[in-house]
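Hi R.,

Here's the chain you asked about this morning:
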Amino acid sequence: MRRFVALAVLMALPLVGTVVVRAAADIPAWAYAIAPPPPPPTPGAPPPVNPAVADTSLKSLPGTTKQFTRAQIGGREGGPADWFPEDHPTMPPVVAMGRMPVTTACSLCHYPNGKGRQENSSVSGLPASYILQQLNDFRNDLRKSAEPRKANTARMAQIAKSMTPEEMKQSADYFAAIKWTPWVRVVETNTVPKMKSNGGIWVPLEGAEAGKEPIGVRIIETPENPEYMEILRNPRSGIIAYVPTGSVKKGEALVKTGGNGRTIECGACHGADLLGMGPVPGIAGRSASMLARQLYDMQVGARNGEWTQLMKPVVAKLTNEDLVNIVAYVASRPVNGTANSTK
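And the predicted structure, written out as tokens:
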């Protein structure tokens, strides 16, 4: 009953008359982590070597005796590597192997445990009905990215269009059955390591380029261990979210009260603990940059699925600073009784 009351409350709210008009320069670039284009090739130079193909050595991880090459880890020789099969239920074929050449294995990007990386989405623990709705939104071109260079969003639409209804159901049921557990560690700070984007993942610069810079009005998410995430795709190695000092407290006020009409309290639909309510997804403890992308995509009309219409009045007036504060707080929320934030 609570979920229907919450949805009724939200649907009864008047649509916000004044919508924030965003300029192209207003996009929260920190949330999309688009890398600059590579330099043009030198005339006469040999083509660059792909290290994921050239490196044939066996890789290892603590906690498992399994070993894989980079080609196997990246799904270039069958399904992507599954380092810890004991951590999840038996994967259906579409999750474990996909159906190439179009239907990539779900486990490649979202991991076998559904936690994903900050450049895509965490899907474990979401309601199966919600996952199905998102797949259909992608299929029907109702879910896109506000950043046209974000290639994996377009790729997800291609995958959804190629999936059968049964494959959609199998993947939704599989990920919905996996409990969401801590994955993001929120750290409030005034400075952040200088970063570069590797395929949508912020990683610290090394050598002479390394150093610190002011965090400003942004959140920088980076792997706890870049090699584990970028190269080895370790599904047990999570994310650090560097957020501005004081942003968690500011976000709490917006999330819990709506900020005197600037937005609507999130708990009305996502539950008091933000862990979801009925078909409404849980958002606590999930990637801050992923959450920010979805809020911004909804605000500017890139995302237009069925559930998005209920979110339109929620996001209409939000500024980039509001986005930073809201997702800093939400990402810091506990998912198993332990807060995900440190000072």
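The chain has 15 helices and eight strands.

Let me know if you need anything else.
M.
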